[in-house]
Amino acid sequence: MMAIETKVWDAAEVLNTPADIAAYLDAYLEDGSPEELLHALNTIARSHGMSALARETGISREALYRAFSDNGNPTLDTLLRVMKAFGVRLAIAA
After folding, report:
1. 25 within 8 A of 68, measured Cβ to Cβ
2. Which long-range contacts (CB under 8 A, 24 or more apart) does 83-88 make?
3. Weakly modelled stretches of the chain, pLDDT under 70
4. What per-residue confidence (pLDDT) applies to 32?
5. What are the pLDDT digits (tens) for 52-72?
């Protein structure tokens, strides 16, 4: 019997469009904890590329890594700039 080779699945590899990113974030906003949402934002930032994201937002790479780390606490300004760079927007619905 041959061993099956597997590869760790990374969502960052498939978050290619604003629609993909919006759906991914929406799922975390609906059911996730703040820590899980932070992890999702980190994943999306990696999919975008931290250097590119830093250029688009005007926020240093180091600050982005800190904001989206396990102990991060991004400001609203950071979130809004990053969301704009992702091509999505934050909305409130009832």
Report:
1. no
2. 84/57, 85/48, 85/53, 85/56, 85/57, 86/18, 86/21, 86/44, 86/48, 87/17, 87/18, 87/21, 88/18, 88/21, 88/22, 88/25
3. none
4. 87
5. 999 999 999 999 999 999 889
